[in-house]
């Protein structure tokens, strides 16, 4: 059976406006109904604490959104098959600078190889 914190996180991720457990205080349930009816959101306070520690709600933005403009430019060119020297020439920068951008973007995106980079680009329709 799924952990309640995980279930709540999934429900909220797919659009639920609120989440209460069967163990929630009945007085809080009325508060939850009013808040959601008014267009707000509600999560049982005890459950919210568990969600933070058990599920660790994370940023859901794609990893490539963490890149600077220059890093993303290097990322695109690498995904298209260009090598460090080609990119350096295209951007009028040194190969060492491009290598640094490449290392940083690979680290930020938790990629281990150029094959991983190309796969990521294809999966996210960036090619």
UniProtKB/TrEMBL annotation:
The keyword DNA-binding applies. Pfam families: GerE. PROSITE patterns: HTH_LUXR_1, HTH_LUXR_2, RESPONSE_REGULATORY. GO terms for molecular function: DNA binding. Keywords: DNA-binding, Transcription, Transcription regulation. Residues 1-37 form the Response regulatory domain. It comes from the Bacteria. GO terms for biological process: phosphorelay signal transduction system; regulation of DNA-templated transcription. InterPro entries: CheY-like_superfamily (IPR011006), Sig_transdc_resp-reg_C-effctor (IPR016032), Sig_transdc_resp-reg_receiver (IPR001789), Tscrpt_reg_LuxR_C (IPR000792), WalR-like (IPR039420). SMART domains: HTH_LUXR. Residues 60-125 form the HTH luxR-type domain. This is LuxR family transcriptional regulator. It comes from Pseudomonas amygdali pv. eriobotryae.
């Amino acid at each position: 059976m799924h952990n309640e914190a995980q279930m709540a996180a999934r429900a909220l991720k797919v659009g639920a406006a609120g989440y209460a457990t069967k163990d929630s205080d009945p007085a809080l349930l009325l508060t939850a109904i009013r808040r959601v009816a008014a267009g707000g959101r509600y999560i049982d306070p005890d459950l919210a604490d568990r969600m933070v520690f058990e599920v660790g709600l994370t940023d859901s933005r794609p990893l490539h959104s963490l890149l600077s403009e220059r890093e993303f430019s290097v990322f695109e060119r690498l995904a298209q098959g260009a090598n460090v020297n080609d990119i350096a020439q295209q951007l009028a920068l040194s190969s060492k600078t491009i290598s640094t951008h490449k290392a940083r973007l690979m680290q930020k995106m938790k990629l281990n190889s150029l094959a991983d980079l190309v796969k990521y680009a294809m999966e996210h329709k960036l090619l």
